[in-house]
Structure formats: C-alpha cells, structure tokens
Fold this sequence. Notes:
Blueprint: E1 8-9, E2 21-26, E3 31-35, E4 41-42, E5 46-47, H1 49-59, H2 61-85, H3 88-96, E6 105-109, H4 115-122, E7 126-130, H5 135-143, E8 147-148, H6 152-155, E9 162-168, H7 177-187, E10 188-199, H8 204-209, E11 222-223, H9 226-235, E12 238-246, H10 256-269, E13 274-281
Parallel strand pairs: 6-7, 6-9, 7-8, 9-10
Antiparallel strand pairs: 1-5, 2-3, 3-4, 4-11, 10-13, 12-13
Amino acid sequence: MPLEDGKSVIVPCTNCGKQNFKPSLECEGFSFVKCVSCALVQRNPQPVQEEITARYRDKFGGDYLSYEIENEESFLKLQQLALKDAGFDKIEKKLFLRSENEKPTVLDIGCATGTLLASLRDRQWRVTGVEISPCAKYARDERGLDVYDIALEEINFPSSSFDIVLASHLIEHLNDPRSFLSETYRILKNDGFCFITTPNISGFQAKLFAGSWRSAIFDHLYLFSAKTLSSLLKSTGFKVISIHTWGGLAAGVVSKNIKKAVDFLAKRLGLGDVMIIKAKKIN
C-alpha cells in the first residue's frame, strides 16, 4: 500500500480487496470514492491510523469529551431505542435465564463516557469498554467502569470472552473495518451477537444531500449501505440476523408533521439515515 505522503495512504477496498474505484461524493475539501466491484464507499487515500488516533486523543480530545458529556443523555436514549428495535432485550432475557451465578458479558467498543455500559451494569451485566479518546478516563474515574484506551486489536482479549459486542457509530471511523470485525468475531462466544450501528449511505438523506449529507464528513473513512456492511460481516464469519434503519429528515429541515411522515416512511422502507445490524457468531 503506497504512501501518498507521511499522513495518508492508498488502500484497497476493505470489503472485496479490489483497487478499482470511481468518484462518489464530493465534499468540502475532501471526497469519497466507490468500489466498482462491490459498491463500498470510502475515503481513498485516507489518513493513516496514527493520524486518526492522534486526532481523537490530542487534537480535539477535550472538545470531544465536553460534547459527549453534554449530549450523553440523548445519545443513550437513541442507543437504547436502536438496541430495542434490534431485539437486544429478548437476547438479554435468554442470557439471564442461563444461570443465576453466570452474569452475561458485554463489550462496548467506542463507549464514549460509558453511559450505556453504566446502564447495563445496573441491569447486572458484566461490562467492559474500549475508547481511545479522553472519554475513557472519564468513564473510569467518574463511573468506575473497566475501559481500555487502546484499539481493540491491541488489547488481545481471550477468545470467546463476550456474549455481546456493541459498536455504535464506530466502524465508519476505522482504517481497517475487516480487521475489527475479525477480532470481534474471535472474542465473541459461540452464538454471541454483535450490534453495529452506523450511518446508512443508502438512506433517503444520503441520496437527497449527496456530498452535503451530514454523515459525509472528514472523520468518516467508510460509508456503508446495508448491502456492503452485510457483505463484510458475512465474509468475516458472521450471520446477519436483522437490519433496522431510522431517521428520514433532520429536525428543523421541514415542519414537524412532514418530518414525522418522512421518518415513518424511511423506517418502514429501510431508507433511514442510520442503521443497526445484528449479526451472530456461528461456528
């Protein structure tokens, strides 16, 4: 993979491995390309991993922590609604029926300030988090959570460690989503589940706004559709169980009544702005 300069690199498609791309989205100061073979949309060239890590830890780490603290209540509600749509509660009930002495285990990757982990701990889950930004220290110090501040692949959890792995608005930021999903598969228990939440480039808003879409931003290295993310999950060993989307138009763009109608249709038709995919590890 030849370096463009010291800070960016040309990469093959993380889904199919091909290196044949065409222009996709033109944004302000950067752009996305689409793989001709599988249609995955990505930045290319993209910043190297060291640049990405430094950006979250140093360049705007403090601002990101303030942003997460300010919005953590609304973010938690959105995460809980998405997980409910995807059937998390039903899986939770089954796991707690296994044994009174065997609490189920969950890993939240990109856990931010740990609000979701704290809520699951209150429901008697054994919880662990991963977060490379300064939010990790906040989650440890303020909430007493077990949170690692290095990349998942560097931690080396034992195989078959977790019943559930969660990753909300994370995979689109990663240099190597394939490596991330392969490691997720390894550390999940047999018949364990992962829940991946990410923007949906096949959604109504993405089609309407193109390069001005609110998720076509500099920090997103990949923009998945249900088809491309499902393909990547399957190629790393997972069985895709369900896909749910939500969000038709952002608040303030149109009247509340029109937004409500568009939101309903987008969710019903699978054209929502954000999607959650539930996938299962099956040997």
